[in-house]
Amino acid sequence: SQQGEEDPQALSIQEGENATMNCSYKTSINNLQWYRQNSGRGLVHLILIRSNEREKHSGRLRVTLDTSKKSSSLLITASRAADTASYFCATDEPPSNTGKLIFGQGTTLQVKP
Amino acid sequence: EADIYQTPRYLVIGTGKKITLECSQTMGHDKMYWYQQDPGMELHLIHYSYGVNSTEKGDLSSESTVSRIRTEHFPLTLESARPSHTSQYLCASSKPGLASHEQFFGPGTRLTVL
Prior knowledge:
With 113 residues, chain A is an all-beta fold.
């Protein structure tokens, strides 16, 4: 069964605006990761947040994690056309640290110049 | 750019052919993975390996097979390709250890079976 579900499925914004994507999951996790995928390419790791963390920053990225609601959000501030891509959340498979990840359906972000 | 490579990048073949998708990494990672991804959809794990001579089936049933004879090499084979195998195949690797680490992805192989 799918662990991560994301919304919105698609998001279109103007350059300079902020983009927020949400991810919900079903079971307990050890950590949650966000990845970016440019069209037709492999995924690139963006950020990892552990289950005991609530917020993490990396450059223009801000990730929050609410384990009580089993949800996470990814905020991209001051978006650029180059941020146009699909964004996936991924959770590690419980009950132990197997290294296996379960990916959400992804959010397709379009940033218009 | 991650040091993980996949060949070929694109492959168009006829039904019934045997194919091998190559994946290699130069990072010395023990863990390697194969995912299948249809356009605009999520990734599904089809095979993974914890190290040499270790292979396991993933969450999505697949008719493909894998082998892990060398740490750096994790090829995927389809004995008899069918149109239902048309998809993108992504290879990934991660560092050893108990904790989940980030996965490094190759560029993918887009397979079309006619």
